[in-house]
Amino acid sequence: MAGRPIHLNTAGAGRVPEDVRRTMADVLDREAATGCYETEGHLDGIVNDEMYRRLARVLGAPVGDVAVFDSATRAWCSVIPRLGLGPGDRVWVTPYEYAGNLILLFNLRDRTGCRIEVVPTLPGGDLDLEWMAAHIADDVALVSVTHIPSGCGIVNPVEEIGRLLAPYRCFYAVDACQSVGQIPVDVRRIGCQLLTGAGRKFLRGPRGTAFAYVAPELRAALATDFHDLHVARIDSATGYRVHDGSARSLELAERSTAAMAGFNTALTLFEEGTPFDNKEVFEALRATLEGVPDVDLIAPGTQQSGILSFRHPAVPAGTIVARLAEQHVNAWKIVGHHTPLYMTERGVDTAVRVSTHYYNTVGEIDRFGGALREILREHA
Ligand SMILES: Cc1ncc(COP(=O)(O)O)c(C=O)c1O
Predict the structure, then answer these.
(1) 154 near 307, Cβ under 8 Å?
(2) Could you say which of 18, 135, 202, 249 has the lowest number of CB atoms within 10 Å?
(3) What are the Aminotransferase class V domain coordinates in residue numbering (predicted)?
(4) What integer pLDDT is reported at residue 373 of this predicted model?
């Protein structure tokens, strides 16, 4: 498409591939022409089978352990409150935890009396694994680690942490919203029991698609208060029976067929492509930003992904993002309270986030760098 902006906001939502757009448009056309339930029936093999098999392969999971939701937060909220946490339980989070996950955990803390502890970091921002090894014990009921946070690009060592936690009682949850599709993610290698993610970001699926891997031992431990009609039936005047105990038993039955079919197409493109190839572009992005005077990079940790945030002492993040948009560059203004534990400590209220994916080019990064320098010159 002529005049398409330089998209440096895959951490918000990836650029929608033409095949995904067409799949969704075809579903909507068919729904209008023949009926919605009828279209879902026609696509049953795709939205109830193929999509799950693809997702399971992408995550390295058995197909019965994956479920699809309309947001990553919904996936998280479908599992964590059902854990039955109590006053004797400790919950570990890291400073990189996403605000939505924390809101639920704070609510559970207030209702159940469980304690929340924040894993400390080393001076450069890496998680202190020695502290984790020294303090882990069987009263830790849940450990939640964000693989890559939404506000900066650190890649946390989820596999190493999985090995460290394996002998203990805790369930291990990984928020992979910003990592799936960007870097390799395999639940067997991580050793987690829960992994949540969004379809719209580095997998380039539609808005309103997300997923979870939920291990059988975690499902067995959940006090699930509701099952929808795709997995349960009322079989007497007073009771019901759950006939599908797979991870799909955590889903709700109603969903958008267009979104499901579009997500299947995104997963197909992902499986057929070479999606992890953005190193050169990211290095160009980092070098570009390091070369811009007075820019303060927010880049904790030794291992970085394709996400980089920055501030300028004189020009507000919102102004930079708006002016970049005028130059056809999509960047994003992040707010510190979305990754509150880390950003508050660092004193970040707002910052500009840029994120690269395999479809970005070094030429685009050069144009972004030129536009940014010009904006800062004008406003500083
Ligand atoms: C690290 C992280 N976790 C969770 C979420 C929440 O995802 P959703 O908006 O699909 O609920 C986001 C969203 O950006 C995120 O970046």
Answers:
(1) no
(2) 18
(3) 9-368
(4) 98
Give distance in angstroms: CA of 293 to centre of ligand 1: 31
Instruction: Please state, in angstroms and rounded to a whole number, the distance separating the CA atoms of residues 52 and 48.
Output: 7
The rounded percent of the chain whose pLDDT value lies above 90 is: 95
* 63: its two tokens: 């197909």
Domain 18-272: which CATH number of 3.40.50.970, 1.10.606.20, 3.30.70.360, 3.40.640.10: 3.40.640.10
Q: What is the pLDDT of residues 19-42, one digit of tens each?
A: 999 999 999 999 999 999 999 999
Q: What mean pLDDT do residues 102-115 have?
A: 98
Half-sphere exposure of 90 (CA within 13 A, CB side): 14
Give which of 1, 10, 81 is closest to 250, Cα–Cα: 81
CATH architecture of 277-379: Alpha-Beta Complex (3.90)
Tokens matching residue 39: 């279209």
Query: Would you list the domain boundaries of the chain?
Result: 18-272, 277-379
Residue 1's pLDDT is 47
